[in-house]
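SEQUENCE AND FOLD
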Amino acid sequence: MKIRLTRSSLLILAPIVGCMLLSSFTQAQAEFRKYSNNFLSIGVGGRAHGMGGAVSATSANVFSTQWNPAGLAQGQAPLSVAAMHAEWFAGVVNYDFIGVAKELNREKRAYGALSVVRMGIDNIPNTLNLLEPDGSINYDNISSFSAADYGIFLSYGRQLGQSKWDIGGSVKVINRRVGPFATAWGFGLDVGLQKHTDRWHLGVMARDVTNTFNAWSFSFTEEEQRVLQETNNLVPKSSTEITAPSLITAAGYEAPIGEKNTLLIELDLNFTFDGQRNTLISSSFTSIDPRIGAEYGFNDKLFLRAGLGNIQKVTDDLNPLAKNTLVQPHFGIGMNVSQLRIDYALTNVGDTENTSFSHIFSLQLDFKRREQTVVP
């Protein structure tokens, strides 16, 4: 049997689906949400996605604000600007990043950075006012809105004393919006460490170390509330959700191959403490999501990457007692052209069934250091 959705039926279903999403926030007050602010866990940068997200030990540029802010201390330019764009589900979901990092103290390798992440769905039809009081349909009453999540990061990274350790942190402000109907503000703190030797790279990243609170508020007119009630939808009320802390431990090994080639392999373990998840290792205390990535570099100009991430155990469709292991493969390529770095990744971040791949592009521009003029 085939089901055909007409334009009219889609317009009528749109507000119902939207209200179902909104009502999910009213189930509890000030409670931990397992996947709260999960859009920030997706990560940014073509290099990172090409390596399956296994970069918390080796991230060393503007994109470090998302993976490990300690990596800012490994910057080589006095000023860097970076951007990324990705689309999922045939362009329905857009994910964008822009950031800038500036050297604050050259001797201490201290850098400050400001970055913004946005994930959103735009041009969603608002059909709450589609029906007139007499029951007739008036398409002129249709408007559109966006559902978008924003993360604003103010980050700092520097060398820890005279050691080989770098330390960094990010203060983040979160703003989530569902058109004119719902708004949430949240605040959180991330802290990271990195250590680098000739061959080994180590990293520790603690996210939401003080818990991250999102306070939701809702705004519906009396007429919109009436429509929600008549269609058996809950009218959302103000609530607060809490994102529990998580921890990433990472280790990378870089080996030279000849005079110009290098091979880097990194393993990241993401620990969560908000209940059991469908991860490779799961218990009542913690769930562990491993990620592994590899990067081959030629003359520090050309890079080939591959990675495995989001390894999940899911119930078999035919046998409820059996579990299947799903793995998301990632591939990428990168080029350094003078002060410009171009990275591309082919991933399936938005699909655990490995049936739909997404293209991710990112750019980073490093500005040259000014040469000091010596006055005789």
Notes: The chain has one domain: 7-29+36-367. The first strand starts at residue 31 and ends at 32.
